[in-house]
Amino acid sequence: MSANTLLTFRQIWASKTINYSLLILVTMLGVVVPCWYMEQYTAITPLVLGVIAAALAETDDNFWGRFKALVLTFICFAIASLSIEILYPYPLFFGIGLFFSTFGFIMLGAIGARYASIAFGSLLIAIYTMLGASESSSIFTQPIMLLTGAAWYYFLSLLWQSFWPMQPVQLSLAQTFQQLSFYLNAKSSRFHPSIGNHSQPMRLEEACLNANIVEALELCRHTFIKRSKKGHVNGPNDRFLRIYFLAQDIHERLSSSHYRYHDFAAHFERSDVLFRFKHLLQTYAQECQQIAEATRLNQPYVRSENSVFALDELQGAMTHLKQQNNPNWQQPLRQLQYLFDNLCTVDRLLNNINNPNAQPNDNVLDDKTAYTAKQMWQRIRDNISPSSILFRHAARMSIALTLGYTIIELFSIDHGFWILLTTLFVCQPNFSSTKQKLFHRISGTFAGLIIGVIMLTFIPDVQGQLFVIVLSSVLFFAFRLQNYAYATAVITVLVLFLFSQLGAGYAVILPRLVDTLIGSILAVGAVYFIMPDWQAKKIPSLMANSIAANDHYLGLIIAQYRVGKTDDLTYRIARRAAHSHDANLSAAISNMLAEPGKHRYAVDESFRFLTLSHALLSYVSALGAHRTLINDAVTHKLVIDAYQEIHVKLDAIDKALRDEAYDPQVFDTNHIQHKLSQWRESDGTSAQMILQQLHLIHRMLPEIKTLSQTFSKSK
């Protein structure tokens, strides 16, 4: 086998979609082929549905963690399925049981993501049991068949993971560098030397892309935690964890802002220096893509010389500008030097990708997993409140599913449990996500029915239909996370062919369509009318959270100017919290745009606040990127005084957004502003960068305060 062929095979195998699709293919062949050989075609439907429910309920974990989760899932599946069979002849008790079991299962999600997936899978297996409960000859027949399908999938899944235990870590880490690459490409556009460049649209794009990086970093962190001992990572995961820490440091430096970029364009629009900064960032973006690919393939990363040349050329351009001795360039050139120093550090971090141990760091992560029954119950108790998003979602889903069951019973709807299935998939915790699912579900169902009817017409033989069942199952899981509309279309085809094995292929076409429409209406109605979660009402508190997190992050940075730089767990938690709250605010504002017009509030002001909030985080990140020990007592006192004044004002903004009492006179004092301005103009030491960043933060606060007053009145 040639080297190129081997590399191509590794690239295909390293694809998460292809790898997972192969697992589904093997699982489905293990179901369909024996049933075809023994001519037990009626057994195919419950077995396949059991596989689907098991796969949808599965979450990533280490081998033993996954084994324990699968045992718990199996027990929940058995309880859910048997309960349906026992209560099915008694509609009143069935409805009551459906309401409380739905609420209870969803509230289990308060314990963690694993339990949320188990809860969803249990509800799904319950509805799948309903689909065949009326034809079941025994209360044990359906549960046994569904659980057999689930057990077969879980067996293969454990076997699959034992062969490739590190692949989830590699893929999550590769995704992080992929998102860093996208962010770098967007950031590079800030250095296009055009005075007409407007910063707000660019800041908003950066905020959105930064949210994607935060999500990727958080997914990666959870992947490590699941393979740790209460946050302590050892063994083969340790090397990847250190690369993860490198990615965090790179992110902090790339998300920093050292100056107002449009001011650079005003000074250097006739120079090529900004183009060289832009080229260097684009080169780093390409490197992050290459690191992602090397991590995905578990190969050593080999740096190209492009970034070395780009860095040398940029240094030469800056040297040339300094030799001009232009007095108007003195201040902006100083800012460019800070930026250049920051990118040199990024270059050093990229050099350490193949030697992550060169970067000093502990191997402890913030693990908030609930391990004991007491901790789990406390998580659930904390969410038993109308203010909890999970509680409201559980209430909506319980009422919607119970109402759907009532409609089925009142109108004696054949195959009516597809109403419940649609509601389960479409009803999401917020209106924006539900609206998106609704469109994909309906459009996918229509397309799937059209394609399915055509295929049923031209593929009447059993062998051909079994092939379509296997193929559509694989395609459903391949599309599930990429395009839900496509996934809905192929699973609709799957449903038609599964029922064709029961002699009812064409008979379920109209019920499938009608039930999908009814279930979608119930889902949208539940999100709109039952304890709705309109984003405009929560945006002020999210803004306050972002301001408070930035203030705390800044406080820890200032503290390290006295004791020296350290990336300990406390600092990393604060940094992650600042970025997470910024991402939450960005997501909430985007979700608000998808909501009905009357439920939106101050859209332009929201985007302006997000722009300023992200700029604030960028300025604070620059301080974090340049942490160093300050020995000069006078400089350190000025830094502390500046921080104290900024802290008091940020705290007042936080309280204003929460409608709490604060002293408005704190914004009338600007004692530190004049001193900071003097230092910015006179001092040429490394401390000047710290002082000028504090100056940039301080000058933003009046506008943030004005906007906060707008939102404090919205509650």
UniProtKB/TrEMBL annotation:
InterPro entries per record: Integral_membrane_YccS, Integral_membrane_YCCS_YHJK, Memb_transporter_dom, YccS_N
Transmembrane domains' residue ranges: 20-37, 43-60, 67-84, 90-108, 115-133, 139-160, 438-456, 462-479, 486-507, 513-531
Residue ranges constituting the Integral membrane protein YccS N-terminal domain according to the UniProt record: 70-350
Principal location: membrane
GO cellular component annotations of the record: plasma membrane
Cellular compartment(s): Cell membrane
All copies of domain Integral membrane bound transporter, residue ranges: 404-524
Nucleus listed as a keyword: no
Topological category with respect to the lipid bilayer: Multi-pass membrane protein
Keywords from the named record: Cell membrane, Membrane, Transmembrane, Transmembrane helix
Superkingdom, taxonomy of origin: Bacteria
Pfam family, one: FUSC_2
Family: Belongs to the YccS/YhfK family.
Protein name (database record): Uncharacterized protein
Phylogenetic placement of the source organism: Bacteria, Pseudomonadati, Pseudomonadota, Gammaproteobacteria, Vibrionales
